[in-house]
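Every protein is a chain of amino acids, and every chain bends into a shape of its own. The fold becomes a row of whole numbers, each drawn from a learned catalogue of backbone shapes. The protein below has been through that process, and both of its lines are reproduced in full.
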Amino acid sequence: MIDKEKQGLLDSAARDLALLGSDIIEVNNAVNDLVQEINRLNTHYSEISEGMQKKIHGLKNPAERRYKNWVRLNEEGKRYFGHIFPSGIIPTKDILLPQPAAFTDDKGNIQSIDKIYRVDWNQLTGLEKTALVVQIGKKNNVPFDDMQAEFEKQGYIPLRQRYASGSGTTERLLF
């Protein structure tokens, strides 16, 4: 037989194990609840993401966006901007012809002169603007707010001609 002291320790240990077991069950239930909530949020996020993609890219047919002037991205342009403009069509301020532009470093020194199309800032969606500012800002190591302020001030984003395969317009006076 077990003496009273040992029996008391065994009883105490059994109570502690029972409490610990119920705590483990509660933690397990809480983890399961969290996993279910994460799955629900992932599903919700996917639905939102799909909806945002449709809003970002507009209608599937680029002609349905009805830009007055546009440029079509070539393969290099699609690699760089295709995730923002999957149709390959970007609105421009210019009618057909690219314009010469000087590209400077952060000290104002001219790095290169290249022909550009002026992407029309005002025709872009908010998400397209944000995506372009982030991408161009990272590439040029310029803070987001500075880059966005510059584009807003100019009213356009320069798109180098090498990213384009052509341009178009709905202006009938030219034809």
